[in-house]
What we know:
The complex is a heterodimer. Chain A has helices at 57-67, 100-108, 127-133, 138-147, 150-153, 171-178, 192-197, 213-243, 250-279, 288-307, 314-337, 347-375; strands at residues 39-43, 46-51, 80-84, 93-97, 115-120, 158-161, 181-184. By secondary structure, chain A is α/β, with parallel strands linked by helices. In chain A, the strands form two sheets. Chain A has a five-stranded mixed beta sheet with strand order 1-2-3-5-4, sandwiched between helices. In chain A, strands 6-7 form a two-stranded parallel ribbon. In chain A, strand 1 and strand 2 (46-51) form a beta hairpin. Chain A is elongated. The model of chain A is unreliable at 1-16 (pLDDT under 50). In chain B, the strands form two sheets. A two-stranded antiparallel sheet of chain B has the order 1-4. In chain B, strands 2-3 form a two-stranded antiparallel sheet. Chain B is of the alpha+beta class. Chain B contains three helices and four strands. At the A-B interface, helix 3 and helix 12 of A face helix 1 and helix 3 of B.
Amino acid sequence: MKKPSIKPVESIAFPMVTLPPGEENGMRPADVHQPFIIGLEQTVIGEIPRVSSTLSGSDRWGTVKARWGVGRMHYMVDPGLYALGNPDENSPVLVTANYKMSFDRLRKALPGRDAWILVLNTGGINVWCAAGKGTFGTQELVRRIEFCNLSRVVKHRRLVLPQLSAPGVAAHKVKKFSGFKVVYGPIRAEDLPSFLESGMKATPGMRIKTFPFRERLALVPVELVEALKFYLFILPVLLFLGGLGGPGGFWYNVIHSGFFAAVAVLSAIVAGTVLTPVLLPWLPGRPFALKGAWVGGLTAAALVAFLWPVSQTAGKLMEAAGWCLLALAVAAYLGMNFTGASTYTSLSGVKKEMRWAVPMEIGAAAIGLGLWITSRFVF
Amino acid sequence: MGNLIYLKNVVTLELDREKCTGCGMCLVVCPHEVLVMNDGHARIEERDACMECGACAQNCPTEAITVQAGVGCAAAVINSALGRQGSCCC
């Protein structure tokens, strides 16, 4: 394949920057040996790898793994130009990120269609996050168009970008530097067929980012797994501390008190990472820490209702108060943490919320822990 | 589903009517219908629905819109306060 001529970076008026991860030695074409490549499209600039809109079992399993936090930071496809179906010089050019889930969702949404897919190097990050960070950006787009010789592959000068890439892409600058006009497509890939059919017109519904139950639920596994990984470290600490003090010998206390605290914290973690996202619109309060605190409170109440200590000694009551506060703090923190995965929290709002939420979470956890440890020595 | 609104009266979104040419790009890219077209110029209609993603400011050819764009993520704020590199989880 003839080596494409690349204009020096200076000539497109951008400052020299380090290349994105994986391309330290310069841009290169997408590897045709990637497992999802089904053939090669012959073009005037050489062979372009072809993909289909049918996802394989391996593709789907990859999505499941990513959703559960397994290998999701290295789940990528090569950036570059791909052919979906049998595109020609008049077929639309659709741009996406090199996170494999983004790539798969795009092609899956277009059965029976011919299009060019231009994949940008976003370091394996999805469209919206990458746009926010600037890696799905004007510069990468312009350079990639240049490197892939797009102006020789298609006759038209239009690119369809996902609407959520807009935080990173200045459409007027892309036009100026590459000659290609950016058309912002729908937010959801599923709306692309209608969008393309109607002559690239989006309905208002295609341009609004909602946060429905199904989407919130899809975010739960990765949050839960992350929290549980952390829990594995504090579990032995809780059990050990439970063994100290209290009636009976060390192991008796580990089982009766340590175990109990471990269950309380685990319940708070599960409730915080599962119930807060799922019940989000119905939990009281706008701040996420408050929503989390409600869930923490419910969890503590449930634990108290089912496992209230039979002997109501001062020590036992102190102990219960201790892990109630801990559960509250943990759930509030996890709720606050969910702001990063949500679709409508502003940075200014998050900062404002954290100003009171973080001290309260630390305070509640400290008092809770203090009460609980003290209760070991008060019978 | 209805509009989910976060905190009120916090966002840094500003629009300079003088600079606005009414091209409408901000309306196209905004994912929460924050802006509307009014009398040939854009206007901020639902300020509290703004999440400061920066799409509007990025795509305004005359820089009429400004916003302190950032990611509304508590973990990122904590990481950057602790001086950790790579503030985001991604």
